Automatic annotation (TrEMBL), chain A:
This is NADH-quinone oxidoreductase subunit M. Its main location: membrane. Belongs to the complex I subunit 4 family. Residues 131-429 form the NADH:quinone oxidoreductase/Mrp antiporter transmembrane domain. It comes from the Bacteria. It is a multi-pass membrane protein. Pfam families: Proton_antipo_M (PF00361).
TrEMBL record, chain B:
GO terms for cellular component: endomembrane system; plasma membrane. This is NADH-quinone oxidoreductase subunit N. It is an enzyme of class 7 (translocase). It comes from Dyella tabacisoli. GO terms for molecular function: NADH dehydrogenase (quinone) (non-electrogenic) activity; NADH dehydrogenase (ubiquinone) activity; quinone binding.
Length: 504, 481
């Protein structure tokens, strides 16, 4: 019925919905909160409609909307989704509700602005996953920095200004070279930003290499990959809980998504030539950043580093597929790796979102993120302890949780390419367990040493709701990942087949 | 003897001259209490002039007075936006002028005379008309800068502006005389062909260099930017806002007339392309780097202007119709952003409080969330973050540079966009993340027209980020022939 503007609705509903939230003003904070929640729930409902109407058996882009935006420049307002986009959109709108509930009475200072920024951010992120025009993609990609900048800067911790400036400039630095690359491609294509047209363009190896690095820089900062990950711990530590959740759960995925939409189809030959580099950096992230996470004193920093390590699996899965297709022509393993990367993206969205929500719960009570300030929390907060332990297990990749599925698939695929790569990647199961569980041990178990911990109250209904929602997602995805894999299957198959196309 | 046709072509300018004289007379006979009439009349005069420009626009390019005056699409667009931004200036300036007892008729007449200069300049078909328009613009500006004659800062700025401006005018005139010596013509159309077949290429080239100095000075491109920070800071903000907007359009028009109409043949264009590329890089570097260490908001915006002129030069240096369209698009976007940025300062300034330090904006989001939000829009637009207007203007000039085979220049532009980002973000940081300083609980101006028009102006930057197509097409149509 309204399929031909479903995607526009998904993008603009939260963005426009932010206006009444802002208008509610600081005088009527509850009105602002309820309006924001209503908008987020409506967006989620629309994304469920999208899921139900979506035909997962077809690899084609669906719900296409294509209008001339700027006819003088042949820029299109082009939106369409495939299975991968739908999964990420669902993740975004799901997390969108939870961050608003999570911030309900935690944010007391100008809650209307906070909620409005969250809604705008949500809409723009959905836009990134829908855009089929490179310029539109870029506009969404950059525009979402503005609300995030405000979120960290206004409601963040003591070093928020440093963190948010670093976040903004770092990400902008990465993407501006992509813009030059896109302009170059636009001229090369005779005046088109359409991603399909760009994907069909023949490019020499030299051109591809330059473009590959422009894209790599843009998306590597976003993912983030070693060595351009340094903004992430700062941004996470200083961001308010909701900001961290969105950052980890959705924003990092945009980097991985960018690799799929830009690097792979547009510069496949350069991607193959430099796959070793990306794989090397991914393994470095998995192993080295794992060790760095081990020594963190700050819980948020620890989870932030664990995010970098887990996102290493995403880039590993994507680029290992290259090796498999191009050298061994092993399409099945390549598909496995790519699917693993996708599942890992979604699963990491839930788990990291949940971990940051948990830390937010602790922070709201003690106003400290230092591990040493806690200890014995399980004695006073048994329910919370249960969730915390559960998500920690998921974070370290326990079978039965979603954390296991993606990592296992990527490791299996790597094994077909090169057992050594698989060996290094599998280290994460040990290191991940070490840093996460050691944190749990120090925070949850033992005697209560800090008198303030003894006064902490267990989670209330609102917090429980958020954590239960995350837990349900992690568990369902862990024991029954089939629907998610099926949703993305056709798109991933097509993507893997495209990897074999030479463009020189 | 001018015939009726010439008069008709020149109608908007003639009308403005008459209107300015009438305003001057009215002012002399009106009591200061009724000055509001003059204010609204002046705005009306500008709007009517805008109507005359658009309504009387001929289909084809026409010339008057034996080619001295050209009326084409380029001139039309530049005039419309020069008049529009000046009307904005009038609206924004009034409360500021009243607070400082500068609310006098001269402000309006001098500004309108400057606008007439701009209109002549962008319509010039002859080197003499260029000079005539330029002098009318700059002489009026010198007087405007010194409007607050009791302020030593203002007088210093005016003297500095005058001395350097006279020097630049001299350079320009000297260059013109050499070009005339080499080619024997002052007419830009004849110059275009005569320049190719002249017998003294070195003389012509020297003339070109001197003319570029003049253009660089008017644009405020490094290394001819020295006057910009002092004049921006020293002038009353109500004058700074004018100097920072419409004259930039004029400078683009002047560069286009001299370089493209006069020296546009590819054999000569490649000389000035290189010179403009150097000016562009220097402006981007100096503008963006020096702005970082400034604490005075007006100086920050002054250095930001210099960097923006660097981007504009990126488009001009491409020396093709696409590049000119991009540069004009950029000049228009900058005029709108500049008026909005200074408009916010004018809205915040009160008697005895200039609001010209960056720190004066501390905690603005607490005091006046609406103005803070408008400034946020302006800053992100200046920084070139999508979906703001400023981003698409930057996109167009970068695209023009890449298309003209100057990929390296586009990369330089991109790198400095990142560096420039810092000081725009700092303004946002001060407004949103810092606490207000005790004792600076100044209430912003309550003038309804200012608040309303300023909101429209700032929101236009956001709206234009979504529908910049028509304006771009309009700009492109001017250079399509």
């Amino acid at each position: 019925m309204f399929n031909h503007f479903l995607l526009s609705l998904l993008i603009w509903l939260p963005v426009v919905g932010a206006i009444p939230v802002l208008l509610a003003g600081s005088a009527r904070p509850n009105l602002a909160r309820w309006t924001a929640l209503l908008m987020a729930v409506l967006t989620f409902a629309v994304s469920l409609v999208l899921l139900m109407q979506f035909n997962a058996d077809s690899p084609l882009k669906q719900f296409t909307e294509d209008y001339q935006w700027i006819s003088a420049l042949n820029v299109h307002y082009g939106l369409a989704v495939d299975g991968i986009s739908v999964a990420l959109i669902l993740l975004t709108s799901f997390v969108g509700i939870l961050v608003i509930i999570g911030a309900w009475d935690v944010i007391q200072d100008k809650p209307h602005q906070y909620m409005a920024a969250m809604l705008v951010l949500e809409g723009l992120m959905i836009g990134v996953f829908c855009a089929t025009d490179a310029l539109l993609f870029y506009a969404f990609f950059e525009a979402m920095l503005i609300p995030m900048f405000i979120l960290i800067g206004v409601w963040g911790g003591p070093r928020r200004v440093y963190a948010t400036l670093k976040f903004f400039i770092y990400t902008f630095l990465g993407s501006i070279f992509m813009l030059i690359g896109l302009i170059y491609l636009y001229n090369k294509a005779g005046g088109s930003f359409d991603l399909n047209t760009l994907a069909g363009l023949r490019l020499s190896m030299k051109e591809q290499s330059w473009l590959f690095f422009a894209f790599l820089f843009a998306f590597a900062v976003k993912v983030p990959m070693v060595p351009v990950h340094t903004w992430l711990p700062d941004a996470h530590v200083e961001a308010p809980t909701g900001g961290s959740v969105v950052l980890a759960a959705v924003m990092l995925k945009i980097g991985g998504y960018g690799f799929l939409r830009f690097s792979l189809p547009i510069v496949p030959d350069a991607s193959e030539a430099y796959a070793w580099l990306v794989i090397g950096l991914s393994l470095l992230a998995v192993v080295y950043i794992g060790y760095i996470a081990l020594v963190q004193e700050d819980m948020k920093k620890l989870v932030a580093y664990s995010s970098v390590a887990h996102m290493g699996f995403v880039t590993l899965g994507i680029f290992i597929a290259f090796m498999l297709v191009r050298s061994d022509n092993n399409l099945d393993a390549a598909k496995l790796g790519m699917q693993g990367a996708m599942v890992q993206m979604i699963s990491h969205g839930f788990i990291s979102g949940a971990m940051f929500s948990c830390i937010g719960v602790l922070y709201d009570r003690l106003h400290s993120r230092q591990i040493k300030d806690y200890g014995g929390v399980i004695n006073v907060m048994p329910w919370f302890g249960f969730f915390y332990l559960f998500f920690a297990m998921a974070n370290s990749g326990l079978p039965g949780t979603s954390g296991f599925v993606g990592e296992f698939m990527v490791i299996l695929a790597s094994f077909s390419a090169n057992p050594w790569i698989a060996l290094f990647a599998a280290f994460t199961l040990i290191i991940g367990a070490a840093y996460t569980l050691w944190m749990v041990k120090r925070v949850m178990w033992g005697e209560i040493t800090n008198p303030h911990v003894a006064e902490m109250k267990d989670i209330n209904g609102r917090e429980a709701f958020v954590l239960i929602a995350f837990a349900a997602a992690v568990l369902v995805l862990g024991v029954w990942p089939q629907p998610l894999i099926h949703l993305m299957d056709a798109s991933v198959t097509q993507l893997v087949q495209q990897l074999g196309n030479h463009k020189i | 003897m001018p015939n009726m046709n010439d008069i008709l072509i020149l109608l908007p300018e003639l009308y403005l001259v008459v209107a300015a004289c009438v305003l001057l007379l009215l002012d002399a006979f009106m009591t200061p209490a009724r000055r509001g009439v003059l204010h609204w009349l002046s705005i009306g005069v500008l709007l009517i002039a805008m109507y005359l420009v658009v309504a009387g626009q001929p289909e084809q390019t026409v010339t008057a007075f034996n080619g001295m005056f050209v009326r084409d699409r380029v001139a039309e667009i530049l005039k419309v936006f020069a008049l529009l931004s000046t009307a904005l200036v009038f609206v924004y300036a009034r409360p500021y002028l009243i607070d400082r007892k500068l609310y006098v008729g001269e402000f309006y007449t001098l500004t309108i005379f400057a606008v007439i200069g701009i209109m002549l300049l962008v319509s010039a078909g002859n080197l003499l008309t260029v000079y005539l328009g330029l002098e009318l613009l700059t002489l009026s500006s010198y007087a405007l800068v010194a409007l607050n004659r009791d302020s030593s800062l203002s007088s210093e700025a005016a003297i500095k502006y005058f001395v350097l401006g006279a020097l630049a005018s001299g350079m320009l005139l000297y260059g013109m005389s050499m070009v005339y010596g080499a080619t024997g013509t002052l007419d830009l159309v004849q110059l275009h062909t005569a320049a190719v077949h002249n017998t003294m290429p070195n003389l012509l080239l020297f003339g070109l260099i001197f003319m570029i100095v003049g253009i660089g000075f008017k644009l405020g491109a490094a290394p001819f930017h020295m006057w910009i920070p002092d004049v921006y800071q020293g002038s009353p903000t109500a004058v700074t806002i004018f100097i920072g907007s419409a004259p930039k359009l004029a400078a683009f028009g002047m560069a286009y007339r001299l370089l493209e109409s006069g020296m546009g043949d590819p054999s000569i264009a490649h000389h000035w392309q290189q010179m403009l590329a150097v000016l562009a890089v220097l402006s981007l570097a100096i503008g963006n780097l020096v702005a970082i260490v400034q604490t005075n908001l007006k100086r920050v915006l002054a250095y930001s202007t210099i960097s923006h002129m660097g981007y504009l030069l990126l488009g001009l240096a491409s020396a093709n119709s696409e590049g000119y369209a991009a540069a004009m698009f950029y000049a228009i976007s900058y005029a709108l952003m500049g008026t909005a940025a200074f408009g916010v300062i004018l809205a915040l300034a009160r008697a005895g409080f200039e609001c010209e330090e960056v720190d004066d904006l501390k905690g603005l989001n607490q005091r006046s969330p609406w103005l803070a939000f408008l400034m946020l829009l302006v800053m992100f637009s200046l920084a070139g973050v999508p979906p703001m207007f400023g981003f698409f203007a930057k996109l167009m000039v970068l695209q023009a540079a890449v298309n003209a085979g100057m990929l390296w220049l586009a990369i330089v532009g991109a790198v400095f966009a990142i560096i420039g980002l810092y000081y725009y973000l700092r303004v946002v940081k001060v407004m949103y993340f810092d606490k207000p300083v005790e004792g600076t609980e100044h209430k912003p101006q309550a003038d309804v027209s200012l608040r309303f028009v300023l909101s429209l102006n700032a929101f236009a930057l956001l709206v234009m980020g979504f529908c910049w197509g028509p304006l771009l097409e309009w700009c492109k149509s001017a250079f399509a022939a």
